[in-house]
Design goal:
The chain has a domain at about 1-40: YefM-like domain (YefM-like fold), CATH 3.40.1620. Helix content is about 40%, strand content about 25%. It has four helices and five strands, in the order E-H-H-E-E-E-E-H-H. The chain is elongated and about 55 Å long.
Amino acid sequence: MKTATIREAQHNFSALLRLVQRGEEIEVLSRKTPVARIVPAKSLILSPGKVSWAGHGMKLKMLWKGKGTRGTSTETLLNELRGER
């Protein structure tokens, strides 16, 4: 794992991100003490313009703990939030 000081990370952030895109992990140090780690994201993008939503329904159920929006349709909620344009 590569390391970088906070100063190096600030000044060379683009270069560090290029390393991360290639699969490297970067540990950010403050006075020789690790304070953060920059790791490659597990991308949801399959190809340009397409997103995988597999498993998101279960995550939402866990977040909402089984509570729904009490029968209000998504369209109705969006119209209320948008002010029924």
